[in-house]
């Protein structure tokens, strides 16, 4: 860990809870598993919680898709997070070949519970039965209904179990001002900022997620990079981090080909300056927050 980054992180403590997101590339599996188990106790000792752990889809040759694991922790304070980080500051000690660590401000747990309850109600009242969707071979560097992706990532996505639980990391960077350019359409009067346009998309998309059994697992605002190359794509000044939990990859595929979802993507395109989406598979014990 970079000591200067950690010092700045502590000096700018805002008194809020803090999330730590670790993108990891494992070198020594047995050593890493030993760290994974030991660090769970360190986290609990300072009043923290391991929110999520899972594998990530790896696409070789893509720097931000080269990490194999994702771990999310939440702490009552920045000092508590640093106390745990200091116990395993070296990648070698953790059995890693590489890591990228960012700090974030988590969304209110009360708000998250409200979203979850609302999702359960929507799922109960308006469920959608997910049917198998054919695989599609997308040309390289195209936008899949507003989701930035390419042929290599789509191919890797299909290689995992399509009916097993999965998660999707969304890193979003908002435009300062919404830009509607589809068929000359102008921004709605109530939408001026990129964040507002994306929120309009998110409200519509959330209904489609809920109806297929998905949920918003964790939402946070990135505030600092604690470890990793400052030129890495993950180190950009992101506006939002969202981890969405799904009962299956097929449920996600079923949503993005649906007309109800597609109608709202113009708001996403208007509000998003750049984004990264990274699919993954939750480890046992971390797959139970989908509705």
Name the helicity range. Answer: 25-40%
Mean pLDDT: 88
Radius of gyration, Cα only, in angstroms? 19 Å
H/E series, N to C? Answer: HEHEEHEHEEHEHEEHHHE
How many independent structural domains? Answer: 2
Class based on secondary structure composition and strand pairing: alpha+beta
Number of helices, where a helix is a run of at least 4 consecutive DSSP H or I residues? 9
How many extended strands? Answer: 10
Beta-strand content bin: 25-35%
* CATH C-level category of the largest domain: Alpha Beta
End-to-end gap:
37 Å
Low-pLDDT stretches: 139-147
Shape estimate? globular
Q: What would your notes on this structure say?
A:
With 291 residues, the chain is α+β, with helices and mostly antiparallel strands. It has two domains: 104 residues, 2-Layer Sandwich (Alpha-Beta Plaits), CATH 3.30.70; 162 residues, 2-Layer Sandwich (Alpha-Beta Plaits). It is 34% helix and 27% strand. The chain has an eight-stranded antiparallel β-barrel with strand order 1-3-2-10-7-9-8-4, surrounded by seven helices. About 3% of the residues have low confidence.
Key terms for this structure?
single chain; Alpha-Beta Plaits; 8-stranded antiparallel β-barrel; two-stranded antiparallel ribbon; 9 helices; 10 strands; 27% strand; globular
